[in-house]
Amino acid sequence: MLIVKKYGGSSVATPERVRNVASQIIEDVEKGYQIVVVLSAQGKTTDELVARAYEMNPKPSRRELDMLLSTGEQQSVALMAMTLQAMGYQAVSLNAFQVPMHTNKTYGSARLEAIGTDRLQAELDCGNIVLVTGFQGVNRYEDITTLGRGGSDTTAVALAAALQADRCQIYTDVEGVYTADPRYVKDARKLEEIGYDEMLELASTGAKVLHNRCVEMAKKYNVQIEVLSSMVKAPGTLVKEDSLVERMMVSGVAADKNVARISVIGIPDLPGKAFALFNLLSQQGINVDIILQSIGREDRKDISFTVAEENAEEAYEIVKKHQQALGAEEVTCTKDVAKVSLVGAGMISNPGVATQMFEALYSAQVNIRMISTSEIKISVLVDKDQVEDAVRAVHHQFRLYKKESGR
Ligand code: ADP
Ligand code: ASP
Ligand code: MG
Fold first, then answer.
1. What is the domain partition of the chain in residue ranges?
2. How many CB atoms are located within 10 Å of the residue 404 CB?
3. CATH 3.90.1570.10 corresponds to the domain 337-396
4. What is the best residue among 181, 226, 258, 400 to mutate for testing ligand 1's pocket, by most ligand atoms within 8 Å of CB?
5. Is 316 left (phi over 0), alpha (psi -120 to 50) or beta?
6. Among 8, 233, 317, 319, which residue is least crowded by beta carbons within 10 Å?
7. How far apart are CA 40 and CA 152, in angstroms?
8. Ligand 2: which residue has its CA nearest to atom 5?
9. Is 3.40.1160.10 the CATH number for 2-173?
10. What is the pLDDT of residues 279-303, one digit of tens each?
11. pTM listed for this prediction
12. Nearest ligand for residue 150 CA
């Protein structure tokens, strides 16, 4: 039996934790399993490397940024290999070049395209525990790429698919996937199972417990993911094709603080204006999320939209530069907003759900700035300083809390 295990940054943050993970790996080796382990950079290493890059250059080249950020994962795998060897076990660390893990050419958010399995298989056949750098790839120019923040989860699922592993386990600092972030919703409930589609929406709307691309990949290759704690031995959450056990309408609430809103005020109410505006952004590869257009007044309308916070300046500058050509009266940008999303299968066919969500926000005195709905989620934009209150209120409204809390 072959198991792919992934441990996140907090699980390997200190020498004690590295040893604790090594012992867990050894437990499975002793059971006779072949093990491939994907590791993230230790603790806050990646954040620190980002800060160091910006200290040297406020606009670092994406290629060089990837070259730097990928070093965190390389430290982790080498240290883990040494730890396992010190404990008397055979282990080898491999980076993206050595595997190899081929990606497209996009630095900073590369997509995995092909994984070679010969070397991995050979190392396993020699009796090695194989440690692979998460988050890294290599592109057609033989440059190092990274898969985007949180991307080690995707490395693990991709390896599990490529190696046709029997199990794919993602170990983190919480016991599984919860109905909301357990860090600030204290009575959030751990889900036994969750379907790919709902998990994908939760991950895409801010529940960073799994990288959204890893869920996409798991669905595509039908890889079941077990989300578990590296610190507490407890049953985790199974992410799989349509969950039957936990089939309920609302599966969770997610928050995303990495949001900025740009408003283009007083654009002439003419055909082609929305196209002109969003074409400017798509040409620069900037993704737009929620869009709101107001009803026109005196032949003019306002268009507001959200982008990821890191794209805010660039998006604002592009629109500002073309303000005259667009005929807009004013362009504004704010980062004081966050998105709260309610996720669940088949919500759109139940009109009461949106009303209940808005009622919860009203009771918590949270003002809604924008709304967007899809078949599987309802998202609202709120002020950043109210986001935690909003999540708690919505979570409470749908009674997603722990059963043992007695309510
Ligand atoms: P790792 O370093 O192991 O990859 P992350 O920090 O990326 O871990 O993801 C785990 C974190 O995700 C948890 O500490 C938790 O705060 C957060 N989180 C957000 N939403 C959820 C959720 N619905 N269920 C579980 N954890 C969540
Ligand atoms: N180390 C990377 C990050 O912090 C990748 C990961 O942890 O998944 O984003
Ligand atoms: Mg993560």
1. 2-173, 259-334, 337-396
2. 8
3. no
4. 181
5. alpha
6. 233
7. 6
8. 150
9. yes
10. 999 998 899 999 999 887 778 999 9
11. 0.92
12. 2
